[in-house]
Structures are given as C-alpha cells and as structure tokens.
Amino acid sequence: MSKKQKGVDLITRIGHIFRNKEGKRLDFDTRPYWKQIYNDMSRYVVLMTSRQIGKSTFQAIRILFEMLVTRNTSILFANAKKTQNNEFRQRSLLPQIYRNRKLLRAAFGKSSINNAKMMKLSNGSTLHLEHIGTSADSARGSSARTIIADEVQDIPRENLDVIMESAASFPKDSKYRFTGTCKDDRNLMYQLFLDTCQFEWIIPCASCQEDNPPIGMEHLDLEREYLFCSECKKPINSLEGRWVAQNPKCKRMGYRIPRLIDPNTVWRNSADGILDKYEIYSRNKFLNEVMALPSIHGEDLITLQELESFCEDRPIMDPDNVPRKEIEGQAIIAAIDWAYNTKIGGVSHTIISIAKVEHEHIKILYMKRFSGPYYDGRNDPDLVLNEIVGLVAAFGVDWVFADHRIGNKENQRLKQRIGKRFVEVEYSNGSHPVRWKSDSKRYSIPKTESLDRLFNQLRAGRFTFPNVDASTEYLTDILNVYTHYNDELTRRSYERKGGASDDFLDLLNFTLIAAIQYYGDNMPWLGKYSYQD
Predict the structure, then answer these.
(1) Domain interval for residue 380
(2) Which residues lie across from 50 on neighbouring strands?
(3) For 42-78, what is each residue's pLDDT tens digit?
(4) Is residue 403 part of a domain?
(5) What is the strand order of the sheet 442-446 is part of?
(6) What is the C-alpha to C-alpha distance for residues 206 and 239, in angstroms, rounded to an integer?
(7) Mind listing the pLDDT tens digit for each residue in 458-501?
(8) Is residue 216 within 8 Å of 293, Cβ to Cβ?
C-alpha cells in the first residue's frame, strides 16, 4: 500500500481498492449513510444495525485497510460462535483479497499466515479471530491494538471485558469497535449504543419542511410501500438524510442503522420485502432485525406509560351536559362490543366508546363498561340498549360500529332504534382491504392488518384520552394482547392474554376503521384505506 494520499478522504481511498460482495464498486452515492461511518476513525465506535445492511462488508474492508496501511498493527476480532467467525472469514474477509490480484500480492508473501484462527500479512500486521460466546479463555493473554466485537448481542458482558483487556498494552492508541443487532432493552448491544453520542439518520420532508424523528414504527404502514413522513405522510428521500447525534455531549461514536434508511429497500417481494416481514415476523424479531431497535419486555406492543402520555387534562364527558361546540361540524363515532355474562376465561361486559375525529387526532370523549351491581343484578333486556340509544342521541353520533359476533341479536334491536347510523363489522383472517360485504350488509376487517395499523397510530399519538384516572382501566385492555407467529400456518396473529379483557382495543380499532371509511380520501393523516364491494 502506498503512503496516504494528501487531500483524499478515507472512503475515496477505500473505494479505489475494495469491492462489495458482488465484486462491484462500493456504492456510497445510493447508500450515503455509510460515508461518515467508513470515514470515522474514532477510538470508540458502536454500530447497532439491522440485518443485511452491509455490516460484514464494512467490517472486512476496514480491518484489511487498517492492516495494510499500518505495519505491524494488531487486531483482535471476536464473535460469539466459531461458525460466525468462519462465515465472516470465508464470505467477507477472504473474497476481498482474492478478487483483487494487487491486493493479494500486497497481503500475502513468504512470511504470511492465513488460517481459521489467524491472518498475518506480509507487512507484519496480524488479525486474530476468536469466539468467546461461552468462554473468553482463548483470548486471555492476547495483545491487540484494536478490539472488534461482532454480534455483540450474543456475547456475555464478562467475556467482553476480558477481550478489552487485550488492548491494555496500548493505553494511548487502542481502538474499540462493537457491532451487532439488539435483542431487547437489556441486551449488551443496546447498552453499548446508549453509552455513545447515538447518531440517528434524520431525513427532512420536502413537503412539510419538517425533520422527521429517528426512523421508527411510525414510518411503517401496510398501505404505503415507501418511506413516508411521520407528520404529513408524504414520501421522504433517505438520500437527503444526515447523521444527527441524539446525545451530542458524549465523545463515543454510535450509529443506529435501520433497514428503512437504505434507498434500495424492497418493500414488497414475496415474503422478503419490508412489509412482508412486518406481516410474518414476530414484533420482537421485526424490531430487532429490521428496525435495529430493542424490543420491550414481555412482548408488550405498547407500554402503559406511553398510553398514559396521551391522556389529556379533561374528564370523561358528561352525557347529560355535552357542549354543542364539541360535537358540531365533526364526525362523531361510537363503537360497541356486546357481551353477555360469560366469556372464555372470565367475565365480560358490554362496552361503548364515543369519539370525535379531529384534524390530527381521534379524541375519545366518553367510554363506559356496563358492569357493576346495577347491571349485573337486573334482568331487564332493554336496560343497556336504552342507555346506548340515549348516548347516541346525546352526543349526536354519526356512525355506530358494532361487533357482529355474539351481539347479532342486540345489533338488530339497536338498528331498529337508530336506523342507518348503525353498521356491523366482523373480523376476518387473511390479507385484504377493509371491504363492504353486500350480501351480509357489514364490513369485513382483516384483523392482523387492521391491528397493525391501530398500534402504529397509537404509538404515533393519534388517539387522545380523558385524564389518567378515568382512562387507565380502559387502557389496560390494550396491554392484554400480544403477537404470535404460527410456524405451521406461517402467519402472525394477535392473541389475548389468558382471561384478560381486550374489548377497549377492539373499540379503538372499530373507531379508526369507521373514521377512515367516513372520510375516505379526505382523511387528513391516514391516507386511503379503501373497501371493496
């Protein structure tokens, strides 16, 4: 290797020498997020990445470059498993050398070594490959100026501490690089990232002129096969992004690289596109491997703390004193989930919610579970029905969406009382748009897809609720569901925890669907979610 060319940055020099896995030139024009990372020569760097984002190519190139430009340098590359090291060596490291004759001549000579545990180049630089998933003994006593730990999420913390001691002989010029995919919010990969400046790829929106927040679940929608602005929902261009530190005072460099920031991202492609994975992966797996995000303990889809942050300083609205200004000129939607006295695993009660569709939110005005001695101790079949009819009138409800399943008889009685404002809905399996079934006169809602959308909107703060004291008992219904992937059916679904109630979650879903159908293409923040005849 020649001496460093003056005025030429690192990625330009690397681009002249190395190639990607397909043997083509490295593409920094359509993958601009890699430029700063390849150029980063900081002493301490953490990369928290999604799968299939180019991490192994980066590792191989930076290792070889550092070995070739600095004589007698020493690098320790550690993985959790021997198979991981072998795969990295065979698929990423050696191809860089063997596909380039000039590089091959510079790397290997009479004094060089090249085996599964060690690579020594002609200039005296060495690379040790160790696997330390169960024991770090093999790395004890080693000495290396640069420590690289890959797939950190699979390495116990105490083993990582052992290999970091390998750089003790280089107190002033040692370097550390940690890379991997996080698993949950306690795992080592995520903890290492938190102890950095936390660079996120921030993308501006050309339409609303706002910088988007770090790429997250609010940038995903099964109806949108592109990356979109979390505010105005218009497409955004990841090529225009830039790295912005979320913890700028920290001197340690850390980068999060989710799959969605890659302009070459495939959104739909059999079962391999981003949205295909969103449909079939468990939530934890999708967060970890696609979004480069930690998952939440217990497979919770959203936390109570998040939900309570959307509660406003207002009480549940009094049906006997509904301010006209609150309900005039806006779509008012009621949702009902009927129930009798028994339900598998526990007692269930009829529940109703009433909401107003505002420009940026769905505002829950009222909710009630018809439970307690007053309802349980009376056999009047019209008791709840009469009260619901009264609520519909008091709030000036435009549409009432109700579950078809066990409430069919009550639905028919309610329809007779309120007329065309009443609409039945039913959940269905499979993937299809919300559609109107002309034969049965009801909407068919794909359960998994619609709940995916609902959780996206919940996390984005698109629902607001009365104060915490009034809302918490209803919000806990939302916490009682989890996603389950059925290996035999190769299908992801939402399941209810034991005998816990999930009724309020269904009401929010019915309300969201009703709002979309009511406004159609004019829905300001959801876009089109059409039904089919």
Answers:
(1) 304-522
(2) none
(3) 999 999 999 889 999 999 999 999 999 999 999 999 9
(4) yes
(5) 435-437, 442-446, 422-428, 399-403, 331-337, 351-357, 362-369, 463-464
(6) 12
(7) 887 889 999 999 999 999 999 888 776 555 555 667 888 766 78
(8) yes
Question: What distance in Å separates the CA atoms of residue 433 and residue 281, rounded to the nearest whole number?
Answer: 20
On whether the CB atoms of residues 495 and 482 are closer than 8 A, the answer is: yes
Work out the angle at residue 55's Cα, subtended by the Cα atoms of residues 50 and 58, and round it to the nearest 5 degrees. 160
- pLDDT per residue as tens digits for the range 429-454: 777 778 888 888 888 888 888 888 89
Q: b/e string for 222-259 if b means 16 or more Cβ within 10 A?
A: beeeebbbbbebeebebeebebeeeeeeeebbbbbbbb
Distance CA 234, CA 224 (A): 10
pLDDT of residue 478: 92
Domain boundary among 148, 180, 212: 180
Higher-pLDDT residue of 460, 335: 335
- SS3 per residue for 327-358: HCCCEEEEEEECCCCCECCECCCCEEEEEEEC
Q: For the residues of 140-187, what is the DSSP string, one character each?
A: TT---SEEEE-SGGGS-HHHHHHHHGGGTT-TTT-EEEEEE---BTTS
Q: pLDDT band for position 407 (50/70/90)?
A: low
The CA distance from 28 to 151, in Å, is 24
With beta carbons less than 8 A apart as the criterion, state whether 292 and 286 touch: no
CATH number of the domain residue 478 falls in: 3.30.420.240
Which residue do the tokens 């090529």 mark?
Answer: 239
Stated as kind and residue range, the H or E segment containing 55 is: helix 55-69
Distances (CA, A) of 427 to 369, 442, 452, 490: 22, 11, 14, 19
DSSP string, 494-520: EEE-TT---HHHHHHHHHHHHHHHHHG
Whether pTM > 0.85 for this model: the answer is no
Flag whether 258 is in a domain.
no
Relative to beta strand 74-79, strand 126-131 is parallel
Domain edge (last residue) among 180, 203, 230: 180
